[in-house]
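Question (not urgent): is this output format expected?
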Amino acid sequence: MRFSLNNSTLLDCTLRDGGYYNNWNFEIKLINSYLKTISKTPIKFIELGFVNLDKNNNLISTANVNTKLLNKIIIPESLKLGVMINFSDISIESEKISRILSKFKDKKFKSKIKFVRLATHLNEIYKIRETVNFLKKHKYIVTVNIMQISELKISSIKKLSSFLYSLKVDIVYLADSLGCLNKKTISKLSKTFKKYFSGNLGIHAHNNLNLALSNSYHAYKNGFNWIDSTIMGMGRGPGNVLTEEILSKLYPRELKTGINSLKHFINKDFSKLKKIYKWGPNKFYRYAAKKKIHPTYIQEILSDKRYKPSEYFKILNNLDNIDAKKFNPNKLILSSNFYKGTPKSKWSPLSILKDKNILIIGPGNSVAKNKIKIENFIEKNKLFVIALNTSKGIDEKYINLRLVSHPLRIISDIHFHNKISTNLILPLSMLPEELKEKINRNNKILFDYGLTLKNKNNLKIKNNYCELPNSLAISYALSILVAGKTNNTFIAGLDGSKKNDSAFEETKKIFDLFKKRYKNFDVKTITKTKFKLKSFKI
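Got this back:
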């Protein structure tokens, strides 16, 4: 039996979509206040979070909703709670599907969770039959969330609509993953879907172009009866339709009784979150939407303090060149997924670095300030110089090698490295083929030293690869020097940012780890730094 409804339905997914900013760590007190406030509005459906196969099932977080969380929250009678499953997390193995669905048999879980959304890409939709049948059998309202809807062709829509209708899916949601929908496209999608799918339609609009509200209202006018929203628009990338705005648009009269409570809740609790995480549309999200770059790239770039605003568009231009809409942004940007598995590289740093005295050039301003001194120091001591990423400040002729390891750096700096002839060290064998093809090999030698990431305290250095807790260039560089059995190591330009900065803390930890594991490996700084390194006057 298919779930039916007559009027427009708002679904607030703040606790699920907003979690991309605070890692789904919403305090129970805030969740209860949020639920109580929402219950005073015309909204009746709340998406509480995700359900997945995370091993940390005991954590109370909306990243993986469980009975422990459900027992902690107070659910008003007027609200129906639901969860989302990212089908890509489980679709590869039937065993994973069975394991995750077993959670939905739990009586306590079933008593409080009323609907389930399956987030799918086009290539996954035809694998969901077993999952949908199971959920329908257990009396859940079932929604299928089709991602990157702007990229679907009419022929695909016709086929998938028939398939989803045959499964008796209750609601089909169209997700504007790339944030590039407009009214014209929505009208076209509405006409096509309504022709082939006679069930309920919903829209999940992203705010890249500041059109989420107008697009959602236009969809409503064109027959979409489910609309997603979040408090203050809190959500992945630029965020979503603002709950307070879409409520005022669709239910101006009904909202009168709850508007003061909603305003009070926003001012008291959510305004603080907005100040901390700063979600919302900007010129970078607009650019991404026009170029069809997944918005999570932008979110990652803006939150990474190693990058300056002047570098953002350079990174985006390179993302545009590698067709970023086709990548899972987590796999491309997050190092933990980017460098996994056993490294395949064969090159050993011993072949060129053994017994050499090394100078590492970092990105700090202290290099340019001490340019003449540093260049004289290099010449006098016949130092072998390795520059991190695009670090400058001395003449390029003094630099023997450049080194790059962080995924975002590899993407953003391709143009720089392709232009110069300085030889380059990087984890080449671990890169996606599409990215490898973008690196110019004609004017330089590429030294492929493997890199794989393990837990936060792991440090293993082999002849041809290393296992590290992060992919920072300094971590990778120190590993290469240890593997190469170098002599003295000096560093310049590792000035250090504010001590409460995440990049500073990461770098500090890596130095502490190397000091602990390799007591005879010593690094001296020849420029001022905030890190606790031995100074060497030049």
